[in-house]
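Progress against Task 2.4 (sequence-to-structure conversion) is shown through the following example record, which the project officer requested during the mid-term review.
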Amino acid sequence: MADSKTLHCNLITPDRQVFECDATSISLPAHDGSVGFLTNRAPLLCKLGVGELTVESPGSTHRYFLDGGFAQMLNNDLTILTEHAEESAGISAASADADLANAAAMTASDPASRAGKDAALARARARKRIASSRR
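Structure tokens generated for the chain above:
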């Protein structure tokens, strides 16, 4: 349980609980921009976008790539539900470049395929940004 200077963070995918810790600050990608969390933040429910989750805990920093989902903040407890979470350290520049090339090569002949291509490009660009930021 979080003490008075921290908030509790729980990252969950349909397969498993990915990560859990007490944190001093958290930043995550909402669908309309980045959202930050500190202790005693007002309750919030938001739709997630694609990007990097950063969790600052006493003595360490944890980073994960998120691909959509939802986050709920209530009583210093942040629960993040996402379809896909991946440790940022595990994203290589080569795989990010390959994902971007594959997404760019997708055909988009109708609105549904265009939406799929746009989503794949957004994921690939976010992974590339994450891989590039570690250099």
